[in-house]
Design a protein that fits this description.
Elements: H1 2-8, H2 11-24, E1 29-30, H3 41-44, E2 52-58, H4 63-78, E3 82-88, H5 93-99, E4 106-111, E5 116-121, H6 126-136
Parallel strand pairs: 2-3
Antiparallel strand pairs: 1-5, 2-4, 4-5
Length: 137
């Protein structure tokens, strides 16, 4: 009986946690703090877009970061006035801590004024990025 408990009960919380992460991974969610966070060009190290900016926090050895870079660059190229800025999380630790970036890739969608309006941890789908820009712009 004890063996059954070890094989059934112990893995249950880990499985539930994994399923929750898979479900939320890459989803662009609305900021819950009312968009109080604003980022400037100086903080990001790149120019903000006229209408919106896609900010990607990456690290050197992050495999999903490469795919995220391709998706965001493609979307930024398709939509006028949208810029894509990639931030190296290892070099900008103060910004990572301030924005509570817990993993890479993390994508922030900023409006024309640099206000954070959406956020996703993990690889976002291109359709979701386009939809988030449609609501932002």
């Amino acid at each position: 009986m004890a063996g059954l408990v070890v094989y059934v009960v112990v893995p249950a919380p880990a499985t539930a946690s994994w399923l929750l992460r898979v479900r939320r991974d890459g989803r662009l969610r609305v900021r819950t703090n009312g968009g109080a966070v604003r980022l400037s060009e100086a903080e990001l190290g790149g120019a903000l877009g006229e209408r919106a900016t896609l900010v990607q926090f990456s690290t050197a050895f992050c495999q999903p970061c490469r795919a995220t870079r391709r998706v965001l660059a493609e979307v930024a190229g398709m939509v006028d006035g949208v810029a894509h800025v990639e931030v190296d999380a290892e070099e900008r630790l103060e910004l990572v801590r301030r924005l509570e970036i817990l993993r890479t890739p993390t994508v922030l969608v900023l409006d024309g004024g640099g206000r954070v309006v959406r956020r996703a941890a993990g690889l976002p789908r291109k359709v979701d990025v386009i939809a988030a820009l449609g609501e932002t712009v």
